[in-house]
């Protein structure tokens, strides 16, 4: 008998190698062995809209070509879908999420007359599912606000950052299955990003953000595809505050409830100040670091100061995206203290 069927094998997870021993005359020791030969062991890896097939074998003859078969689930027939001369094949144009099953037929020969030609060696059957594991490209992001438009305001209703971006497919045609975006924010250049918005519409290309601490901050955006792969961060785009701090030149601390304290107006995006007031003889009479100042016309001892002209200097420390930064210009000027 020159045939043998090996059963009970796990051909899905491993290949098998065989050799034949020759015995003569009832001897218990073989006369010799044929060269070992293995089955074809097929592996399949699902990628985006395709499946990569690779196979291995170890045989003493020369495998010249390989025929790839795929199961047609509608008819249960195995259809030949390709011929290759290398131990690898990519089946493309598939539907992500659907299972596809294959086997490979190796055709080889010893090249010796009288020996069967071709020698057929089949792989096991294997199935795989195409899966999109490649993230899309990140969108291109831009940020604008009242400061970038050349204006300034302390009106909280105007303190918004407008984020705008393009579809990733503009830069990467293969990013054609984007289903949404994620927006991340950091309050300054050194802080980590945190998710602030999840957008579940692929055709939405803008978002308005109103940070709690002003306009300063940095943003990145990512794209999400239909298999929930998230792209890398986009290029970081930072917005900055446009600080405003203006001081009056007169106040009337007479207790009538009107203009009784010296305070800036308007002001915003100011972390602190170093405000100092001097009398006509150059003596320091008042100082504060509170940006609201709220000087009521008393000296450092809490005593009412007389009417007159006082001189002040003010170093202003602004809230910027880079952190707290001193304004380059020192504010200085005269204040008229009037009690009538």
In the CATH classification, which architecture of the largest domain applies? Sandwich
Overall geometric form: rod-shaped
Instruction: Give the CATH level 1 class of the largest domain.
Output: Mainly Beta
Mean pLDDT over the full residue set? 94
Alpha carbon gap, first and last residue: 127 Å
Order of helices and strands: EEEEEEEEEEEEEEEEEEEEEEEEEEE
Rg over CA atoms, rounded to whole Å, is: 40 Å
- Characterize the largest beta sheet: strand count, sense, and whether it forms a barrel: 6 strands, mixed
CATH topology of the largest domain, by name, is: Immunoglobulin-like
Number of helices: 0
Count the strands? 27
- Specify the structural class: mainly beta
How many discrete structural domains? Answer: 3
Describe this structure in words.
- The chain has strands spanning 17-18, 21-22, 32-33, 37-38, 41-47, 50-56, 62-72, 77-84, 88-92, 100-109, 119-122, 126-128, 141-144, 161-165, 178-186, 194-199, 206-209, 217-225, 237-239, 244-245, 250-251, 267-268, 270-278, 284-288, 308-320, 323-326, 331-337.
- It is mainly beta.
- It has three domains: 17-128, Immunoglobulin-like (Sandwich); 145-239, Immunoglobulin-like (Sandwich); 244-337, Immunoglobulin-like (Sandwich).
- It has no helices and 27 strands.
């Amino acid at each position: 008998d020159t045939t043998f069927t090996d059963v009970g094998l796990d051909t899905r997870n491993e290949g098998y190698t065989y050799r034949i021993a020759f015995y003569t005359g009832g001897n218990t020791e073989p006369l010799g062995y044929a060269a070992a030969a293995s089955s074809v062991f097929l592996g399949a890896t699902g990628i985006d809209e395709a499946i990569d097939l690779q196979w291995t074998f170890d045989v003493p003859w020369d495998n010249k070509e390989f025929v790839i078969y795929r199961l047609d689930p509608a008819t249960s027939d195995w259809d030949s879908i390709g011929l290759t001369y290398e131990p690898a094949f990519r089946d493309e144009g598939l539907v992500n999420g659907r299972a596809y099953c294959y086997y490979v037929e190796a055709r080889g020969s010893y090249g010796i007359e009288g020996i069967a030609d071709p020698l057929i060696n089949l792989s096991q059957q294997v199935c795989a599912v195409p899966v999109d594991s490649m993230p899309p490209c990140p969108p291109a992001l831009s940020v604008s606000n009242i400061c970038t438009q050349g204006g300034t305001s302390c009106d909280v209703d105007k303190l918004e950052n407008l984020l705008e971006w393009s579809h990733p497919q503009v830069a990467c045609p293969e990013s054609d299955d984007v289903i949404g975006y994620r927006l991340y924010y950091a309050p300054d250049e050194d802080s980590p990003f945190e998710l602030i918005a999840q957008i579940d519409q692929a055709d939405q290309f803008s978002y308005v953000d109103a940070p709690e601490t002003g306009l300063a901050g940095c943003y990145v955006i990512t794209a999400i595809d239909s298999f929930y792969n998230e792209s890398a961060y986009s290029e970081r785009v930072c917005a900055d505050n446009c600080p405003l701090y203006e001081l009056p030149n007169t106040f009337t601390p007479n207790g009538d409830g009107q203009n009784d304290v010296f305070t800036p107006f308007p002001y915003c995006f100011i972390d602190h100040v170093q405000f100092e007031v001097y009398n006509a003889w150059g003596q320091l009479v008042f100082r504060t670091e509170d940006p609201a100042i709220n000087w009521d016309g008393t000296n450092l001892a809490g005593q009412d100061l007389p009417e007159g002209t006082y001189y002040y200097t003010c170093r202003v420390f602004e809230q910027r995206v880079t952190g707290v930064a001193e304004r380059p210009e020192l504010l200085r000027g005269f204040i008229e203290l009037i009690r009538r």
